Amino acid sequence: MSTTDTDDGTGRAAAEPAAAKRHIGVSADGELGEAGSQLSTAPVDTAVPGSFGGMRAPGPAGALAWTGREAVGWARWFWRQLTSMRVALILLFLLSLGAIPGSLIPQSGTDAQKVADFKDAHSILGPVYDRLGLFHVYSSVWFSAIYILLFVSLIGCIVPRTWGFVGQLRGRPPGAPKRLDRLPAYATWRTAAEPEQVRAAALQVLGRRRFRAHVEKDAVAAEKGYLRETGNLLFHIALVVMLVAFAWGQLFKSEGNKLIVEGDGFSNTLSQYDDFKSGNLFGSDDLTPFSFDLKKFTGTYERTGPNKGTPRTYQAAVTYSVGAYGKDRKTLVKVNEPLRIGDSKVYLTAHGYAPVVTVRNGKGDVVFHDAVPMLPLDPNVTSQGAIKVMDGYRNGRGQPEQLGFSAVFVPTFAGAGKGTMFSQFPALDFPVLALTGYHGSLGVDAGIPQNVYQLDKSKMKQFKDAKGDILAARLLPGETMKLPDGAGSITFDKGVKQWANFQVTQQPGSDWALAGAFTAIFGLAGSLFIQRRRVWVRATTGADGVTVVEMAGLGRSESARLPEELGDLAALVHEQAPTKTDEPDAGTDPDAGTDPAAEPDADSDTTDPDPHAVPAAEGAEKQ
């Protein structure tokens, strides 16, 4: 078996790619025919913008027909552009750019107060951003247009490619072209085996390598790498699933927060939330029916070392029930370990303290007794808040009034004269409550919502002692601050409760979005790393009666793996159809001596090969 390639010394027929074959994509259409086509289902855009109407016939009928052809032609051209990969990538890039303002500029659906503050602080940019829809990016017209166009582009790309791929799966690999030696990977040799035996051996070898193979005329046609197109289609389908999931989640999502003090409960209704926001299509009937009580909150912290004060345990013991008559169940809600109830997730998001205070009037009657949540200001849970007595209080003169106290609470006080009123540690080691009292009108009767952690002092007067100084005190648990002029007293009770803030979310479509993301990753990996290739094995009887074997391979793109793989396949087929060596001429005297030192004739093909090596396949370099 003569060859123009080189033997790699391992018994495999090495099939080298020909440098002159780089024009294979051109010759595929002209000479390879069907064999060089359909290695991909990507549509080929041959339409160019221009006059689609052709020649216009005279008269109104001709003008109408020309207009129709022109409109249809332009519509088809725009559709091809929209469903092209180039436009899809541009739309995906625009969608990514459009999401940037949504993360940098306050959004009305997330925090309306920040939007109002931004408008007040930026008198010029505020109106401009408002007109451009930058305060509600994800529901703006321009963002929705990009989103919908990308969705249509992907659908228009997926449907025809899917049908084309199904047709390829139902069909057979195309037959061998006439000139196998024009393909980028090629090998040939002569064998004594019959052509039928060679084709049978080739079918067996290709089948073991998981090629789809069949015999057509005088050659075996095989193809492999269909998972490449499968991965490509999966990637596109996964993008559509992600887009639908994100849209579904934005339209039907809900998110609410509720601060609950130990011993209190919550029912999943709109009136129970401290704040609540939802998607445009979400309704109150979509809330999952459940309720729960906060039994106890447990928080432990590092006592020593560089991480002193760092939380070690944050967990809330709750008892919950599903539905109106559900059975009570106990569980622990931890950070990043939410309670899942139906489509809702209950997250533990914050924690603080709620000192219990008792307010009495001048007669000693209790007019207020409750745990008052305080808002943490730093990692050591230095907290501030407001105590508001709105009903049932009368001053020393018997006149109805309202009381308010500005409060600062520290769970671990450093001690008097040792610094400002800041906590030294987040645990309840040395709790102190600092109070300043006011009387008058809290402004709640006007019906205007107020911050529960702040006092509206515009209609209130501050209590002062007998010396005319501002009345203020630091109370330890069990201590009482007397109010002047028989106005009563306020007591810091010994019990200090804790509170936990829970976020209840419903995000439909999140599981589908996650599944789509993973599918897109695997599909993209398959489309990038799997090569679609075809192999043909032709066995014909030559003019001298000896079988000539030709093997060739064609891939979607040039790759060093294709010649290597063809060499492996050629070696396996060669084992069952070995090279036929030339026999000595009949007229030669077998007893005639030869000079052992004589060099063999350069044109002779009678040199004994290595019995353990497979001669290299003959390459078809085209100069």
From TrEMBL:
Record-annotated membrane-spanning stretches: 87-105, 141-163, 233-252, 512-530
UniProt keyword list: Cytochrome c-type biogenesis, Membrane, Transmembrane, Transmembrane helix
Chief location category: membrane
UniProt biased composition (Acidic residues): 598-608
Subcellular location field: Membrane
Gene Ontology process terms (BP): cytochrome complex assembly
InterPro entries assigned: Cyt_c_bgen_Ccs1/CcsB/ResB (IPR023494), ResB-like_domain (IPR007816)
Residue segments, region Disordered: 1-21, 571-623
Pfam families to which the protein is assigned, alphabetical: ResB
Membrane topology qualifier: Multi-pass membrane protein
GO terms under cellular component: membrane
Boundaries of every ResB-like domain copy: 85-566
Protein name: Cytochrome c biogenesis protein ResB
